[in-house]
Amino acid sequence: MEKVLYDIYLADAMIKTNYSVFSSDSARKQDLLNSVLKKHKITEAVLDTSLVWYSGNLDKYNKININLTKLFAETAESMRQKEGMTAQLDFVSESKGFVLPVEKNNFLLSISDLPNNVYTFKTDTILNRFGGAYKLQFNILGVSSSFQPVVTLCVQCVDTAFVKRDTISRNGLFTSYIDIVQIKQAKALYGSIYFPEVFPGMGILIQDFNLFHSFQPLSVAQPEK
């Protein structure tokens, strides 16, 4: 399962960081997922069944993701040493962007953590930055076809706010980003994860929760009216 998730996370990252290529081509997305399934000789139904099982065994899933975090770090370091440059598995690198501080990176959400069915987040610093891309990324377990959280990401500028909303439709790596034009000065970055329902005994595992700022924009975002 660890090897399967490693390749799926890489595929998801490829889709998110090449949004202009994959956004209107669902067949290409499916082909990428199928290539991962074929490599590991499993079906999508087997993968989904396995993720459902891990949703009831979060301690085991947590160990897998801890190992994957170490593996990604080792891979990035190997690339840096081999190529003599700052390498990256995602679009943010030390030379092009910054990891923004958040309250916590790994946590398990239960019904008591979700007043009004919402988990809120924000950066622990004042931004005062012009332009660029602001990105949210984390791994999630606990999503199902009938339980799909909605993520809202907001970049507050001096005179307007840029807002992006996404629905999480599957377990694994989730990424969302907002670009703002160079003349706009960002003051704050914040957002929320809304759960359509909460119930006793529920558990949503979130790992590697991070916010980033990159100086290289990915697309043209529009301010919310």
- List the helices and strands in order: HHHHHEEEEEEEE
> What class would the helix/strand composition place it in?
alpha+beta
Calculate Rg over CA atoms: 18 Å
> How would you classify the quaternary structure?
single chain
Topology:
Elements: H1 2-17, H2 19-22, H3 26-40, H4 44-55, H5 58-83, E1 97-100, E2 107-109, E3 118-122, E4 129-141, E5 150-157, E6 161-167, E7 172-194, E8 204-214
Antiparallel strand pairs: 1-8, 2-8, 3-7, 4-7, 4-8, 5-6, 5-7
Helix pairs in contact: 1-3
Question: Describe it for me?
Answer:
This protein is an alpha+beta fold and 225 residues long. The chain has one domain. The chain is built from five helices and eight strands; from the N terminus they run H-H-H-H-H-E-E-E-E-E-E-E-E. It has helices at residues 2-17, 19-22, 26-40, 44-55, 58-83, and strands at 97-100, 107-109, 118-122, 129-141, 150-157, 161-167, 172-194, 204-214. Strands 1, 2, 3, 4, 5, 6, 7 and 8 form an eight-stranded antiparallel beta sheet that branches. A hairpin with a 3-residue loop joins strand 5 (150-157) and strand 6. Helix 1 packs antiparallel against helix 3 (26-40). The longest helix is centred in the first third of the chain and has 26 residues, at 58-83. It is globular, with a radius of gyration of 18 Å.
